[in-house]
């Protein structure tokens, strides 16, 4: 049986100019352990599996004018270590080595003034397999490592055939290595108009290289306009059999469309099992921030990378959806429902969209000057386990209840434990390590470095192989394994192995035609679990709390953030089964409201006396007047101004996390 500490594969690598230094590399179920032994000293560290996204076998690329790798070194000369895919026609036939590239993203401390912050950095570990004279044998060894790593990264046991030691040539060996289980395929929606209009370029430059590293196949759909993604998801008959996950490269608006499209399918139960990934490309990126925040990932340093890693790692964590009912609609919401101040700012500032995020600040000031209050009724059902703290309106779970709930949800493998994972890796590990030819202890590869510490040694991007100085080229996210920059003028150059590109009319990409929408909008049906609430026209249950009065706002939140800088419900987690009502009653002064709007970015607003944070499982809002200048929004989308009620459907969707 394989356990966390069991060594599955082990090799010793050497570096040419360090005759007394050996590098023992072990693959365990915990990760890749690298141990340096030099002059009786030993240093080791482990690259955790959680931080590895994939690995590939490469061959050295043939040089145009030079065929001999044994030529004398030209001092100071630098050239790229160019590698090509194992099946490329450009391989250097004189080099029978196989280079195993292992791609990882390590959590590191920032430098200088940012030393207290953490961020993820790419680290490519290169192992050169060259023990045998024949390419096939070196390839067999490298493939063994590649397949084993891919199984482990997918959290699957490595088949024994992959781990069997083979010291002699066995032509059938490769046939014994099963496919490493490519059981995922992504449907990616990119809204080319979201945010500042750069989502498509951002996807090509920063996300596609990661998908390539992880060998994740995907199909891309550029949305043509409002409701395109919703219609696509609703109509695509083979959606659940073709795709494992749906990825949105946009803001929260497109996620809202996709979720509601899924719930418009008769097979909604199965459709809700698809993983939902979000990569922030819009102006409202509340879900992307909340998902990373719940895991303790350093989102702010690199939101796109952190979110793309969630997609690549592909753990499906439960996420609550909220069933929403208005007089004319049933909707599903994942972020928030708003009435009053915040919704007014969000909707009315649309007219300033061209100035970017500043629009919220400017319109906040405008709304404070022309402050509005709304008369109506708020009714709610308190979430189980919460009780009133003294006479105050703030409700808190008792400590033991909170612990019990946290333990329960952690035990359910929800992926949202709120802790930064401990990270033992603190050194750069970008040097290719080489297996000796014929396993002789004589090292043939050297690291061109005079650095003394292992950390510095590994971070030097320059190597000498057989007297030739090579410069490491794999590194930045948008560099191909062969060292060239990804061409960004075509999706095809991005090399997704099996991607088809659906697109819209007049696009230059391949287009997949969907059947005509034979359903009129009236015939579109919203499915989903049955409601437990009385109809909107019926009174609320007698156990509910009812407040009549004037409100500045009622904002219902189920994620911690409703925008990257809007930390509105600090206690909310994606799967806690709770809706947090943030309520401000009329009577709050403009200066208090300004403090509130300023405090929302840090979460300090919850300590203000004017703010009530009420954990509920269901609520109803009934504005007194149906004619109002105010707005009601669901996930930032405007809905009819009038009565609305909502209830939590715990863990109904699946969101992609690390
Ligand atoms: N090609 C397109 N052109 C115009 N609108 C589109 C297109 N594709 C999708 N949309 C619409 O754009 C809306 C806003 O997108 P999204 O929320 O993802 O980005 P955003 O920039 O954050 O927008 P917002 O600030 O409104 O949240 C979506 O609701 C969707 O209906």
Automatic annotation (TrEMBL):
GO BP of this protein: sphingosine biosynthetic process
Cellular component GO terms, alphabetical: cytoplasm; membrane
Pfam families: DAGK_cat, YegS_C
Entry keywords, A to Z: ATP-binding, Kinase, Nucleotide-binding, Transferase
Keyword Transcription regulation: no
GO molecular function: ATP binding; lipid kinase activity
Keyword field contains Metal-binding: no
Domain DAGKc per the UniProt entry, residue ranges: 181-328
Name of the featured protein: DAGKc domain-containing protein
């Amino acid at each position: 049986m394989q356990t966390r500490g069991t060594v599955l594969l082990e090799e010793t690598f050497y570096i040419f100019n360090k005759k007394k230094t050996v590098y023992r590399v072990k693959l365990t179920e915990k990760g890749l352990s690298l141990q340096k032994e030099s002059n009786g000293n030993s240093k080791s560290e482990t690259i955790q599996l959680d931080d590895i996204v994939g690995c590939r076998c490469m061959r050295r690329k043939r040089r145009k004018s030079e065929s001999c790798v044994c030529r004398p070194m030209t001092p100071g000369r630098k050239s790229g270590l160019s590698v090509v895919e194992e099946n490329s026609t450009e391989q250097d036939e004189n080099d029978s080595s196989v280079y195993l590239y292992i791609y990882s993203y390590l959590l590191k401390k920032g430098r200088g003034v940012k030393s207290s912050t953490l961020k993820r950095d790419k680290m490519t570990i290169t192992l050169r397999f060259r023990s045998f004279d024949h390419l096939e044998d070196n390839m067999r060894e490298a493939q063994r490592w590649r397949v084993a790593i891919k199984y482990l990264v997918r959290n699957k046991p490595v088949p024994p055939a992959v781990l069997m030691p083979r010291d002699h040539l066995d032509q059938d060996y490769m046939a014994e290595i099963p496919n490493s289980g490519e059981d995922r395929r992504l449907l990616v929606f990119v809204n080319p108009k979201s945010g500042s209009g750069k989502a498509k370029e951002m996807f090509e430059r920063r996300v596609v290289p990661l998908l390539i590293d992880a060998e994740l196949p995907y199909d891309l759909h550029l949305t043509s306009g409002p409701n395109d993604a919703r219609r696509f998801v609703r109509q695509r008959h083979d959606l659940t059999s073709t795709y494992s996950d749906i990825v949105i490269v946009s803001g929260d608006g497109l996620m809202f469309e996709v979720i509601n499209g899924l719930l418009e399918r008769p097979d909604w139960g199965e459709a809700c099992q698809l993983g939902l990934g979000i990569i922030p490309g819009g102006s409202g990126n509340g879900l992307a921030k909340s998902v990373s925040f719940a895991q303790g990932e350093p989102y702010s340093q690199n939101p796109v990378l952190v979110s793309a890693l969630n997609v690549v790692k592909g753990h499906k964590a439960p996420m609550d959806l909220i069933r929403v009912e208005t007089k004319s609609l049933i909707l599903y919401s994942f972020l928030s429902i708003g009435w009053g101040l915040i919704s007014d700012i969000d909707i009315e500032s649309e007219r300033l969209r061209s100035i970017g995020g500043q629009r919220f600040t400017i319109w906040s000031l405008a709304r404070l000057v022309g402050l509005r209050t709304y008369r109506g009724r708020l009714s709610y059902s308190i979430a189980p386990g919460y009780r009133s703290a003294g006479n105050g309106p703030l409700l808190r779970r008792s400590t033991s209840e909170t612990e019990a709930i946290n333990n329960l949800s952690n035990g359910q493998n929800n992926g949202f434990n709120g802790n930064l994972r401990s990270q033992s890796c603190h050194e750069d590990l970008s040097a290719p390590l080489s297996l000796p030819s014929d396993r002789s202890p004589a090292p043939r590869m050297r690291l061109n470095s005079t650095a003394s510490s292992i950390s510095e040694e590994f971070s030097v991007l320059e190597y000498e192989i057989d007297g030739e100085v090579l410069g490491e080229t794999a590194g930045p996210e948008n560099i191909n394994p062969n060292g060239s920059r990804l061409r960004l003028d075509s999706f095809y150059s991005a090399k997704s192995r099996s991607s088809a590109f659906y697109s819209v009319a007049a696009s230059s990409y391949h287009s997949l035609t969907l059947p005509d929408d034979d359903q009129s909008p009236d015939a579109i049906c919203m499915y989903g679990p049955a409601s437990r609430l009385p109809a909107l026209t019926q009174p609320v249950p007698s156990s509910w709390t009812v407040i009549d009065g004037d409100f500045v706002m009622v904002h219902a939140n189920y994620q911690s953030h409703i925008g990257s800088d809007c930390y509105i419900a600090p206690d909310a987690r994606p799967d806690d089964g709770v809706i947090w009502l943030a309520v401000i009653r009329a009577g709050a002064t403009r200066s208090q409201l300004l403090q509130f709007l300023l405090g929302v970015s840090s979460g300090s607003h919850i300590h203000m006396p004017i703010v009530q944070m009420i954990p509920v499982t269901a609520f109803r809002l009934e504005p007194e007047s149906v004619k109002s200048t105010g707005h009601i929004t669901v996930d930032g989308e405007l809905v009819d101004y009038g009565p609305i009620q909502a209830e939590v459907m715990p863990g109904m969707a699946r969101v992609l996390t690390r």
